[in-house]
Amino acid sequence: MRRFRLPPQILRLVLVALAIVGSYLVARSFLVPPSFGKYGWYRGDSLTLIASRDPVFAGKKACDECHSDILHNLAVDAHKTLSCEGCHGVCQEHCNNPDILPDKTTGSHCIRCHEANLARPAWLKQIVVKDHYGPKCTECHLPHQPTKTP
Amino acid sequence: MKNQISRRSSLLRMGAAFLGLVTLSAARAAKAAVQTVFVSTSAPKGYDPTRHKWLMCIDDNKCIGCGLCAEACKKENGVPEGPYYRTWIERYIIPKPKPGSDQTRGEAIVDSPNGGMHGFPEPTLPKDQIEHAFFVPKLCNLCENPPCVQVCPVGATFRAPDGAVLIDPKYCIGCAFCVQACPYGSRFLNPVTHTAEKCTLCYHRITRGLKPACVEICPAEARIFGDLKNLPADDPLQKFYEKNRVQVLKPHLGTEPRVLYAGLDKEVR
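^ Those are the sequences you sent over. The predicted structure of the assembly is below.
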C-alpha cells in the first residue's frame, strides 16, 4: 500500500498559513496591554491612569480639621450649604502648609450669587447692586453667619 | 546503526536548545518593555471599580446660576481656556406668547456665555415679555448605552463598571466621532492634547473618597452625588430620591442616562 503524502504545494500553503497565524499571535501577545479585558473590552490600567491626577480642591472636610469653630458657625446659619473654597479659593496648598494662604484670585464674592437675576430662583436673596446700600457687604453682613450683623 | 546519536548532532541539539532559551527570554524582556508603555503608576490604591456605582442628581430648583461649578471643573481638571467645558450652565428664557396667538408660551431662548462661568448678562428680551427663566447645569449624562462608546473606532472610550464613561488618553486618536455622537454635547477635542475629553466625574477625586469638584463647590446643593452600592440611609442622594420626581434628558434616544434631574421644564433638552 502506498503511503499518503501531502502534495508539496498544499504543504507550502499550510506552512504559509501557519506562519501568518503565528506571526499574528506573536504580534498580539506583544501589543495587547496586560490589563486589557480586566473589566471589559478596554485597558483596565487606563482607570488608574485617569485617577492618577492630583486633586486641586481640598474639600470642606480638610478645612474642618483646623477651622472647625468657623465651620460650626457656618453650619447653623443660612450659608451652611456653601463650600469654603467657593469663596476663599483653592486651599490644597494651604492644607499642606498653613503659611501659604488660600489662592484668593480663585475665590469669589457675595455678588456672584446674590446679584439680582431674572433666572435665579425666588428663594435666593438677591439685590440690585447699584440700588443697595453701601460699597462693602461685610460692613453690615457677616459672611459666615449672614442672618447676623457685626 | 540508525538510532545512534553522534557527538556532533547532540552538541548541535544542545546548542539549538540554548539559543532557543536565550531568544525566549529576550522576547519576554522585549514584551515587558513594550508593555510598560501601556502601564501607568501613581494612582490611588485600593479602589475597586466593581464595588461602586456612581450616580449624579441635579435639583434644578436649587441652581442659582453662579457658575462656580463650571469654573471649579476647569481648575480641577486643567481644562484649557476657551470654549471647552466638561460641565456648564445653560440659561433658558421662555418668553410670553405673542398677543393673539393660541400658544401657551413663546419659543425658548437658550444661552450659556462662557459656559456660565462668569455669570449671565441681562436678557436681551424686556422683563415684561419673559414668562419664565431658569438655569440648567449640564454635564456628561453617564449613559448606560453610550453612543460615544459605540462609535469609537479604536475602543479608547468605554464605560467603567462604576458607571463612569471614560476616555483612555493613550488610545484616543482624536478623530472626534464621539464628539459628534454625544447627543448631550458633553465632549470636545482638547486643543492641547488633541484627544477627546469629557467629564470623568472627577475620577481622581472619587477614587480618593472626595466628591467631584462641581459637587464640592456648589453653594446651593443643586448637585447631589452618591454611590448606589454604598448608600447610607441619611445620604443626600437617598433624601433627594424620596423628595423628588426625577427625569432624564432626551429619554426617547434610549441612552438611559444616569444623571437624574428634578424640577426640569419641558423645553430642556
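The helical segments of chain B are 7-36, 68-77, 147-151, 177-181, 203-206, 213-217, 236-243. DSSP finds seven helices and eleven strands in chain B.

Shout if you want it in another format.
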